[in-house]
Amino acid sequence: MRNPGRLQRQALSAAERSIQALGRGDPVSARMAISTALDKDQTGIYVGVADAVDVAAGMLERDEPITEGVWGHLADAVGPGPLQALVEAVRH
Questions:
Q1: Domain of 54?
Q2: Residue 47 near residue 38, CB atoms below 8 Å
Q3: Cβ contacts of 73 within 8 Å, gap of 6 or more
Q4: Contact 13, 29 (CB under 8 A)
Q5: For the chain, how many structural domains are there in total?
Q6: Which of 35, 43, 83, 86 has the least C-beta neighbours within 10 A?
Q7: HSE, side-chain direction, 13 A CA sphere, residue 72
């Protein structure tokens, strides 16, 4: 039997890894981690985050810096809390 609480914690950890990867300029790892987050997500809260990660990763793949607007979109997508603080920490 699947443990929804454990899966949701794993989804959170994967979302964190995705944001950290964006901060390092690593779009491949960012996409892999957010894919894991979506697979583990039991509540659907990471769908918007995945969209924002996709836009940011696409910029990195085109050798473009992630714009402040895209970082802001990602911060809005994760909402208030520890993930938003992580976005703010890695964007600078």
A1: 4-90
A2: yes
A3: 52, 55
A4: no
A5: 1
A6: 43
A7: 3
Residue type, 52: A
Residue 24: which H helix or E strand, with range?
Answer: helix 4-24
CB 11 within 8 A of CB 40: yes
Residue with structure tokens 């979506």? 38
CA 87 – CA 18 distance, rounded (Å) = 10
What span, in angstroms and rounded, lies between the C-alpha atoms of 2 and 58? 33
From residue 47, give the alpha-carbon distance in Å to each of 23, 64, 65. Answer: 20, 24, 23
Produce one character per residue of 1-16: b if its CB has 16 or more CB atoms within 10 Å, e if not.
eeeeeeebebbbebbb
Residue type, 61: E
Question: Scanning the structure block, which residue is given the tokens 């990763």?
Answer: 57
Predicted confidence (pLDDT) per residue in 27-55, tens digit: 999 999 999 999 999 899 999 999 999 99
Q: Tally the residues of the chain.
A: 92
